[in-house]
Amino acid sequence: MDRAAEDLTARARIRDAAITLFGERGIEGASIRDIAAEAGVSSGLVRHHFGSKEALRDACDRYAKERMIQIGAELTQDGDLTGLDPLALHPIAFPLQLYLVRSMMDGSETATALFLEGVDAVEAWAAGYGITPKDPRGYAAALAAIKLSVLILRDQVSKALGEDITTPAGYNRIGQALMEVFTIPLLTPEQVEKIRKQEK
Amino acid sequence: MDRAAEDLTARARIRDAAITLFGERGIEGASIRDIAAEAGVSSGLVRHHFGSKEALRDACDRYAKERMIQIGAELTQDGDLTGLDPLALHPIAFPLQLYLVRSMMDGSETATALFLEGVDAVEAWAAGYGITPKDPRGYAAALAAIKLSVLILRDQVSKALGEDITTPAGYNRIGQALMEVFTIPLLTPEQVEKIRKQEK
DNA sequence: GGCTTGACTACACGATCGTGTAGTAGTTTG
DNA sequence: CAAACTACTACACGATCGTGTAGTCAAGCC
Prior knowledge:
2 copies of one chain form a homodimer. By secondary structure, chain A is mainly α. Chain A has a single domain, classed as Orthogonal Bundle (Tetracycline Repressor, domain 2). The first copy, chain A, is 74% helix and 0% strand. The first copy, chain A, has helices spanning 10-25, 32-39, 43-50, 53-77, 86-105, 109-128, 136-152, 154-161, 168-183, 189-199. The interface between A and B is large, with 57 and 57 residues. Chain A binds a DNA duplex through α3.
């Protein structure tokens, strides 16, 4: 438990600790006792405030989703991002993203719904942007999954880069590498057609 | 335990069952008793053959990695793929891939090493192909992670598509959607430069 | 025939998990 | 002032986990 957490209520500390530990180790990998220790309370208090592990997870799901939508809205509503420094945002948004991805992989309905909403948004954006893939839905789903891939494989990607991508600097680096993937055409349409026939 | 498995030795059945269940549920999510039941043997026999859960996992890591390298070699060594029907290959290679990715995410050294080798291969391929990103290593790491993303998020992607991508047909569909991502430039270099400055 | 060896099972162990229960201290409310 | 409520802790419960131990059974070897 760090300094800033001391001012929070016990309930908020438990929720934040749960988001951190669930995100790092997965839902099964983090026990209620671990979370209680991280929050500096007894394990019974976790149960007192949230009822059960599944209910705690639900609360984390809804909180993390709401916060991420809120952050996204603040980022897109006005061009000038005064007060919203991307560097200052990272320590807040990154754990939330880690948690949501992990919870989603462990079967969360709420987090999966957020993913599906993301696919819808990407599909609509691509259509309005004049991008016309042969499979618009598949294209959008692939893009949405790609956005999360470096988050999920952060340990492996960090090892490949020799740089921790959970830091703001490292995250920025892999983000720009991802943009290069979207910028440089890897295959010509002719090559795609050739592979497509080969697989038939 | 299906029909074809009946001919295998108990040791092979245990290993195959472990790869399947570990791949589906993760290492912690699949117990030795589950694996034994899936293989149709007692839990004691798992211990008899492999010693411990960690040793079983090691054996699965090495077997899956070796098999995947072997399959990859057979696919690339000669142009004519007679005898290696991609459709027939899917039921064999897909569970192996699922297992390796899952084991990697759960901290396997062997599987992570395979990922790093993949990044090396992508980087060398891109260089020989005349692709010159500003961050070649980051570019290769991003591409390698992307290749695995739809595998990891298979449940979510399947839900977004309304089609199970673990089937050969579904896997083919998302594979082609991924190719479209690599074919259609999403951003112009000018846009990339603009975003790059904005993030500074 | 006796003996070893390997495949295999049954069962018990300690640890850890989520959960349930009982109780304390402090504050609020009538 | 007493009752009620809230935040919080300590402790015990059954289940499940990986692991350890003992023993059965069949095949191969002397």
